Amino acid sequence: MTSILPTIHLRAIEPEDLDVLYTIENDTKVWNVSTTNVPYSRYVLYDYVANAKNDIYADKQVRMMIEDEHHNVVGIVDIINFDPKNMRAEVGIVIKQDYRNKGYALATITRIKAYAANILHLHQLYACINKDNEKSLALFEKSGFIKSNELKDWLFDGKKYHNALLMQLFL
């Protein structure tokens, strides 16, 4: 049985998104599944929004807001660590709490895969996911990513190190 994914739109970050961006970037629960471990000020985030070129070759990343069919922001998706020589990049996604477990993450990854292949012409997307994060691992596997390697003591949560799984998708 195939589930129907919600309709989403991806768009560039606008200055009006500062409050949403500030809330997501400073959510300490998200820090344990990412490489972030310090709070961001509104000024730093505003400066990023104001100065990002939205060109993956200039910025080495692309950040986009995820909107539902009513143009409510449901999260953020990042393509980061762009390597132009090898045509690969890391993907990260954060869905706001009220929108989790409703298919928005899967819909976003589906859209990002097409964008990475057809617009950016990437050869590969990858994600490093905490080995204990079963929901994220299942999401990326459902999206076609494969587990390729275990990275020992890769993520530090402030108290202990966790192994991560490198998930890869060849486009």
TrEMBL record:
Gene Ontology MF: a single term: acyltransferase activity, transferring groups other than amino-acyl groups
All copies of domain N-acetyltransferase, residue ranges: 8-171
Coiled-coil stretches: none
InterPro entries (UniProt xref): Acyl_CoA_acyltransferase (IPR016181), GNAT_dom (IPR000182)
Keywords, sorted A to Z: Transferase
Entry keyword Translocase: no
UniProt keyword Transferase, yes or no: yes
PANTHER family according to UniProt: GNAT-FAMILY ACETYLTRANSFERASE, SPERMIDINE N(1)-ACETYLTRANSFERASE
UniProt protein name: Acetyltransferase
